[in-house]
Write a structure and sequence with these properties.
The chain is an alpha+beta fold. The chain has two domains: 3-58, no CATH class; 90-246, Regulatory factor, effector binding domain (Multidrug-efflux Transporter 1 Regulator Bmrr, Chain A), CATH 3.20.80. 33% of the residues lie in helices and 24% in strands. The chain has eight helices and nine strands. It has helices at 3-9, 14-21, 25-36, 45-56, 62-74, 113-120, 123-129, 197-210; strands at 90-97, 100-106, 139-142, 155-161, 174-178, 181-188, 218-220, 227-233, 237-246. Strands 1, 2, 3, 4, 5, 6, 7, 8 and 9 form a nine-stranded antiparallel β-sheet that branches. A hairpin with a 3-residue loop joins strand 8 and strand 9. The protein is globular, with a radius of gyration of 19 Å.
């Protein structure tokens, strides 16, 4: 399928991709034309990486494609805040989670969202979110050591389902049990445009990394259950959740 058609099917505009990648609109059109002709040597390396991933994952959702483009362009070490972007406010809520199951798609070498999608593609989110009885949205998960299978990474994708879940799942996916636990849930504010996706996640990620629950009689317990990165949307903001236990 031609690259331009793939991008249209995702709802992506050449203008917004060129702005993220820091090239002019005519240059982006030229890069796409070169890509379709198989002349890839002179394409900007970040643009080429983005186009290759889009071609591998033509069913990727628009927000995921934008997120991937932003991560490539900004790098993994930090994101550049946008003027008038996301307000750095995060709410923290404690939730008791009952026993449930996790539908899981493991990776071998992934360390984060970007490397996971490079290895496993981006179809997992749509597949998991189509499960009607799911308890929450699909997420990138960081597994406790006890839940890591041989020759796989601690980074996977997953979605929680009720403990009596027995529906057939796609090949390559599996179901594991998660015991009851207390989760600390971090939620950022909604934002105006999907281009702020990365910034929203970065704000919530920083809050999770720096938050200290010990003054309230709790501590993080990353070996009790997976840590969830639910991503972000303009209407809902960014969300993450991590297990905790009493001191």
């Amino acid at each position: 399928m031609p690259m331009r058609k793939i991008l249209r099917n995702m709802g992506l505009q050449i203008t917004e991709i060129s702005e993220i990648m820091g090239v002019s609109r005519p240059t982006m059109y030229k890069f796409i034309e070169m890509y379709e002709d198989g002349d890839k040597e002179k394409i900007d390396s970040n643009v080429l990486k983005f186009l290759e991933n889009v071609e591998r994952n033509p069913k990727m959702q628009r927000k995921d494609a934008l997120y991937y483009a932003l991560l490539i362009q900004n790098g993994r070490d930090g994101l550049n805040p946008r003027e008038g972007g996301v307000k750095p406010i995060v709410t923290v809520t404690m939730m008791e989670r009952p026993a449930r199951k996790l539908i899981l798609l493991r990776s071998r070498n992934a360390m984060d969202y970007l490397s996971y999608c490079e290895e496993m593609g981006c179809d997992w989110e749509g597949i998991m979110n189509d499960i009607e009885c799911r308890c929450d949205d699909a997420a990138i998960v960081f597994l406790p050591k006890s839940m890591v299978a041989p020759n796989t990474s601690r980074t996977a994708s997953g979605v929680e389902v009720p403990p009596d879940f027995s529906v057939n799942i796609p090949a390559g996916y599996e179901t594991i049990e998660i015991p009851p636990c207390t989760m600390l849930c971090f939620r950022g504010l909604p934002y105006d445009t999907e281009e702020c996706f990365c910034e929203a996640i970065d704000i919530v990620s920083d809050a999770l990394k720096t938050y200290d629950p010990e003054p309230y009689g709790w501590k993080f317990d990353y070996e009790a259950a997976p840590t969830f990165n639910f991503g972000a949307s303009a209407k809902k903001g960014a969300r993450m959740a991590a297990p905790i236990k009493k001191l």
